[in-house]
Amino acid sequence: MHRLAVLALACLLLATPTTRAQDSLSLSCAVCHGARNAPSTVPSFYGMSTAQIESALRDFRSGAREGTAMPRLAKAMSDDEIRALAYEFGAPVR
């Protein structure tokens, strides 16, 4: 039930106009993906590069990568939102 509520919140945030603060979108991603100790069924962003995150989101959006919730969520993201999320969560280039 908790996962369904989180998914519903993420969908709601992604379905709202892009004028909504970027923080809301970031928060909806971080709920499942942002922690080192994310649930084992949900991959964590920890250690992923900006390019890896951006590529994964674009692949989900295009259908090249399968998933349960992410294909639907990524289809609602603009190119700018994908870049911003990848930049925010991606590991710095060394």
From TrEMBL:
Matching SUPFAM superfamilies: Cytochrome c
Tree of life domain: Bacteria
Translocase recorded as keyword: no
Entries under Gene3D superfamilies matching the protein: Cytochrome c-like domain
Segments passing through the bilayer: none
Residues covered by the Cytochrome c domain: 16-93
Cytoplasm found in the keyword field: no
Signal peptide: 1-21
Family annotation (InterPro entries): Cyt_c-like_dom, Cyt_c-like_dom_sf
Keyword terms, alphabetized: Heme, Iron, Metal-binding, Signal
Molecular-function annotations in GO: electron transfer activity; heme binding; metal ion binding
Protein name (database record): Cytochrome c553
